[in-house]
Amino acid sequence: MNIIKRMLNIISERFSKALIIAFCGTVICGAGVTVAAVNMPKQKFKASASIQNEQYQVNVPDNTSLAADKDIGGVSTLKQVNTTDDAVDSYKVKSAIKKAEYEQYLESIKRDYASPDISENEIVDMLKSDDETQIISSEALDVGQEDTSASEHGNVEVVEEEGAELRENAALSYGIDVSHYQKEIDWAKVKESGIDFALIKCGGRSVGDDANLYQDSFFDENIQGALANGIQVGVYFFSQATSVKEAYEEASYCVNLIDKYQITYPVAFDWESSDGYRVNAAGLNRDELTQIVEVFCDTIEGCGYQPMVYFCRNDWYNIVNADVLTEKYKTWLAVYYNEYYYKSDTWQYGKSIAEFDYKYDCWQYGVSDSVPGIDGYVDMNVAFFSYSNYEVKGLQEPELNIDYKDIKIRHGDKWILSEGVYGVNSLGYPVDVKCTIGDTEYTDTGSLATGKYNLTYSFKDPRRGIIKETATLTIYDNARIEIANPVPVINVGDKYDFLKGITAYDSSGKKVVPDYLITYNGTAVTNVKDAGTYRISYNFKDENQGFITAIVNLTVKEKTTNAATTGKKDTTK
Q1: Residue 366 in contact with residue 201, Cβ under 8 Å?
Q2: For the purposes of burial, counting CB atoms within 10 Å of the CB of 396, is it exposed (0-12), middle (13-18) or buried (19 or more)?
Q3: pLDDT (0 to 100) of residue 496
Q4: Would you state the pLDDT for residue 39?
Q5: Distance CA 208, CA 397 (A)
Q6: Which positions ≥6 away from 351 have C-beta within 8 Å?
Q7: Could you tell me where the DSSP H helices lie in 277-347?
Q8: 486 or 199, greater pLDDT
Q9: What is the rounded average pLDDT of the residues 353-367?
Q10: What pLDDT score was predicted for residue 68?
Q11: Is residue 239 scored above 90 in pLDDT?
Q12: Is residue 355 a contact partner of residue 167, using CB atoms and an 8 Å limit?
């Protein structure tokens, strides 16, 4: 109340000719005053959560706290502790807990970062030692725009079918490798077609002189789509490294990109050359390029992933020490059979495989347009290993929570449209939810005119497609009663039009006629007849702002006579 009084004192000083006293939507007015009520959307239930001592601690308004026993499967029970709010929404509590779990998971995978100024000798020594492998953080690396100028395939070798026989293997799995070239993929159809794994491009280094690192623009969408449909994933990094330091930077960036995902298949080093690529001018010899490969792969392995090396057969034979690399790491060989190269046929068990002087683990054998869910061609692979005993975990139904379904705000007030909005996809990852009106995306209401809008909140789930929820937004004008007359003073017996100079507008901008009540000494009266001060209360009910009220004080005086003329005779007759 003291704050309100101080505010009123300031207002009174600035508007000395008008008396304004505002409290709880009621206003007493003098001359030229516009009256409006302000109703912003009420703050609804919110929850935040943390995980402490194997128990969820959930905080909500009104000093309410909740606790839930933590178990491997998620939330088993919710126990209310000192709960005073009967309207606690268990769904929002669960959403808060999911967010806390995800934040705890991200915290748990944080690594000790190396200085971006680490020298090549320090890198080599670290990888040879038993010390924990450190990487450079993404923030400290030169990360730029995606380079789409590189061809989908560098130097390729296309041959007729060769006579090598498939050795006996414990397992055989069929897969694809994808990148931004394939654009939108329907991963549910890919899974139904029998694909076991996908090697997904996570990023690369530009082939130009700028040599910046970049993330593949479809990486997150592809890896989440594959995982959400039960397809196991590995990744590959498109390398243009010309030094040990650059190889270490690429491996660091690769780990930064993939750490939050369930990677079960290998992480591949994909070094390619072609006309115009920066690596062509580097003049690397076999030993130098072999060391570059080793630094990348050893960094990947030191971070807990299975490294793999990709080259076409000619490059395996001519630019690296294949005998060294194929013994240390999984080998991904690219040799395209002509019958599978930009054709619809695919390799099947019983057919011959590519000849190679060394053991190899994965064969990129062709480019096919026969994979359902992919519009166009995609690289085809067969792996002579599998992880069939591993099941992609964490699949759940996606969730989209909208706290405010009916938003009403006054024009000129800004409302952030993400307020109270929380989405979780089928992998359990929090997602960005966009808000659209028609086909246009909005983040706040700042640019919107008055009117009623239908809001659509949505995100693309990798398993269930587009997840949508709707809400209504009403932006209204300032409902008000305007009093144009000066403070009224009349004489006893004078007629007074109580609506003269009174103009009222509802929140849609439409003129309305307000009701009014006349009181004299606290008693309601129908008219003014005696001298004194009358209180006239004007009001109307607005659908958005509730009751709008204005009060005018009317002064009624006794009629006065001219004392100078009283009692004189008329001498004009």
Answers
A1: no
A2: middle
A3: 87
A4: 37
A5: 43
A6: 161
A7: 286-302, 313-318, 322-328
A8: 199
A9: 93
A10: 42
A11: yes
A12: no
Amino acid at 386: S
Q: Under a CB-based contact definition with an 8 Å cutoff, are residues 536 and 552 in contact?
A: yes
Q: Give yes or no for a contact between 299 and 255, defined as CB atoms under 8 angstroms apart.
A: yes
d(CA 348, CA 346): 6
**pLDDT value at position 350?**
80
Task: Burial-class residue 103 by CB neighbours within 10 Å (0-12, 13-18, 19+).
Answer: middle
Task: Give the residue among 53, 152, 153, 50 at the shortest CA–CA distance from 102.
Answer: 50
Residue 95 has pLDDT above 70, yes or no: no
Count of helix runs (H) and strand runs (E) in the chain: 9, 36
**Mean pLDDT across the chain, nearest whole number?**
80
How does strand 489-491 pair with strand 546-557? parallel
Please state, in angstroms and rounded to a whole number, the distance separating the CA atoms of residues 20 and 407: 30
Question: What is the longest distance spanned by two Cα atoms in the chain?
Answer: 146
- Average pLDDT of 222-244? 94
Cα 524 to Cα 516: distance, rounded to the nearest angstrom = 11
Token pair for 338: 């002509």
pTM, full prediction = 0.67
134 pLDDT higher than 50: yes
pLDDT at residue 73, rounded to an integer? 33
Higher-pLDDT residue of 56 and 372 is 372
How far from the centroid of its chain's Cα atoms is residue 438's Cα?
20
pLDDT digits (tens, 9 = 90+) for 454-475: 999 999 888 888 999 999 999 9
Strand order in the sheet with 430-431: 399-402, 421-424, 430-431
In three-state form (DSSP H/G/I as H, E/B as E, the rest C), the secondary structure along 105-146 is HHHHCCCCECCCCCCHHHHHHHHHCCCCCCECCHHHCCECCC
Q: 393: buried, middle or exposed (CB in 10 Å: 19+, 13-18, 0-12)?
A: exposed
One-letter amino acid at 235 equals V
pLDDT value at 87 more than 90: no
3-class secondary structure, 517: strand
CB 229 within 8 A of CB 391: no
CA 62 distance to own-chain centroid: 29
pLDDT band at residue 58, thresholds of 50, 70 and 90? low
Strands 48-52 and 55-60: antiparallel
CA separation, residue 84 to residues 45, 50, 66, 78, 533 (Å):
13, 20, 11, 15, 48
The residue count for the chain: 573
Q: What's the confidence (pLDDT) of residue 534?
A: 93
Q: Decide which of 495 and 81 is more confident.
A: 495
Helix (H) or strand (E) holding 387: none
Query: How far is the C-alpha of 256 from the C-alpha of 261, rounded, in Å?
Result: 11
Q: Nearest to residue 365, comparing CAs of 414, 390, 332?
A: 332
User: Which among 475, 476, 485, 474 is positioned nearest to 538, based on CA atoms?
Assistant: 485
Q: Which of 2, 252, 240 is nearest to 113 (CA)?
A: 252
Among 285, 373, 276, smallest CA distance to 321 is for: 285
Q: Is the pLDDT of residue 276 over 90?
A: no
CA distance 366 to 375: 16
